[in-house]
Specification:
Helix content is about 65%, strand content about 10%. Strands 1-3-2 form a 3-stranded antiparallel β-sheet. The radius of gyration is 19 Å and the shape is globular.
């Protein structure tokens, strides 16, 4: 096993730990949503009243996962589903007053989390690290689309 690269394992482990830390920070501030639900709300903070299909695309969530999250967020009073006036078959997701009241506190927790992530890093190190992550993501997305050969070409020796 010596010499094996463990970047994928380390990223997955960091993702799990970050999710637990972020959830704890949210609970400490009295915010009763999880980080995945926060991703849905964040998309709505950028544009309110968007169709569910567009929300799924922007959050990279499958329809069933998004539907269950929307059910919970709606039960908690953070979103509401409204008929699309232009297309009776489509549903739009809209923010509520409860969501608007919580947004600033959530953003503060997100900023705190960014500080935790980058503690001890210089701005140049952060830029390089995020560039590497973007390249890894692009490689993974190419493979997901079925273009593994193209992803392999991007490998540096």
């Amino acid at each position: 096993m010596k010499g094996r690269r463990q970047g994928g394992f380390i990223m997955a482990k960091a993702h799990r730990v970050a999710g637990r830390v972020f959830s704890r920070l949210l609970r400490e501030r009295g915010i009763e949503i999880n980080s995945a639900q926060g991703r849905v709300l964040f998309a709505l903070w950028r544009e309110d009243r968007i169709p569910i299909t567009e929300l799924a695309r922007r959050t990279a969530l499958g329809k069933s996962a998004l539907t269950s999250m929307l059910d919970r967020l709606e039960e908690q009073g953070y979103v509401e589903r409204l008929p699309d006036p232009a297309d009776r078959r489509a549903i739009r997701v809209a923010r509520t007053d409860k969501d608007r009241a919580m947004e600033n506190e959530y953003r503060k927790v997100s900023d705190d989390m960014t500080e935790v992530f980058y503690a001890g890093f210089s701005p140049a190190e952060i830029d390089r690290f995020e560039g590497y992550l973007e390249r890894i993501l692009a490689n993974l997305e190419r493979v997901e689309r079925g273009d593994a050969a193209e992803a392999a070409k991007g490998r540096r020796v």
